[in-house]
Design brief:
By secondary structure, this protein is α+β, with helices and mostly antiparallel strands. The chain has a domain of 77 residues. The protein contains eleven helices and eleven strands. The protein has a five-stranded antiparallel β-sheet with strand order 7-6-5-9-10. A four-stranded antiparallel β-sheet has the order 1-4-2-3, covered by helices on one side. The protein has a two-stranded antiparallel sheet with strand order 8-11. Strand 9 and strand 10 form a beta hairpin. Helix 3 runs antiparallel to helix 4 and helix 4 crosses helix 10. The protein starts with a helix and ends with a helix.
Length: 317
Amino acid sequence: MVTQWNTLSKLNGIRVFRHKLRDTWLADQYRSVKRKVMRRSEGEAFLLRRYFRIHGKPLNVTNPQTFTEKLFWRMITWNRGDMPSRFTQLADKYAVRAHVARTVGAEYLIKLLWEGNDPHAIPFDRLPAEYVIKPSHAAGQVILVKGHADRDEIIRTVSGWLASNYYWHGREYQYYGIPPRIVIEEYLTNEDGSPPLDYKFYCFNGVPDQIIVRNHTHDIHPIFDTSWNLLDLIVSNCTVRPWVPKPANLEKMLALAAKLSTGFGFVRVDFYNVKGRVYFGEITLTPAAGIIKYTPESWDLAHGEKWDLSLDVRART
């Protein structure tokens, strides 16, 4: 009885200590250290749970066959730390510009207006009336400025970006080591002033295979083959699939996508086609952080068969 009482007293003491510690800087330090130490195991468990929620079955990690299995295999393998550093450069919205210039030419880059890591140094007075702000180390985060700019709100928003590590959003390891930076680029528009369409090229082993077309509001999702036939394919319940005209520079975009995807088992390469010119958008290594489901499912296996995982393996040697 005495032993049990002593044990209970110690446990109560620990609880009191934790309660007192909860809102202190030491607690924040503890949580930060614990998060980093447990990153690999917790990240892998996170990804395995995500795959199961989407597909209703365990992930085949040892012998992935479908596209979505291979996508999660890539994320889990990289999360274990087994990722070439060049993938970090490709995911970095600033550093990738050097790769694109070296591979296909700087003329395909959107004009860079400013970059830096101090939000208070943004030269608002020297920027044009329209521009785009995005972080180098994240995805899906963007500020479109047209006319009046709420400087205080922009500074608050980008400060939040700089203070965060996008890796924790979906355990996409390519973002983990990217130096936080703000990138400001020219705002592209069509002749009528509307935002351009975004052409997303799925490429396997250096060969473009299909093109997803998105508008700036992301409420359309038609998918075409490289001959511009609308495919009977729905991804992740994106059912609005209108036919859109074949872009005039399709062949140029296909050639650029092939060059930028050479040597990779799979990457997605995005372009804009504005006023007769092609502009590079980004390279995506793990689309939608793996939250993808094919309808019909046969497409999942068809795309998986085109993805040569040995290229991922060789990239690490």
